[in-house]
Amino acid sequence: MNATRRVCDGAVYEALGSYTMAWRIGVALGLAGGIIQVAFALIRPSQPPVLRTA
Question: Per-domain residue ranges for the chain?
C-alpha cells in the first residue's frame, strides 16, 4: 500500500507541481459533497419509522 501511495503522490506532484493544488481540490470536493448532502436533507427530510405491533 505504501508503494502505491508513493506512486500516486509522485504522479500528483508531477502533474500539479506542488501538493497545494491537490489539497485545494480535495477540500473543494469535500465541501461540495457536504453542501449537496445538506441540500438533499433539507429538500426531502426523512420520515420517522412507523412501529407496527404484531
Answer: 2-42
Residue type, 48: P
Q: Strand, coil or helix: what is 16?
A: helix
Relative orientation angle of helices 2-16 and 20-43, to the nearest 10 degrees: 100
Mean pLDDT, each 10-residue run in order, the chain (54 residues): 80 85 91 95 81 81
Q: Are the C-beta atoms of residues 22 and 12 closer than 8 Å to each other?
A: yes
Q: How far apart are CA 9 and CA 49, in angstroms?
A: 45
Contact 16, 22 (CB under 8 A): yes
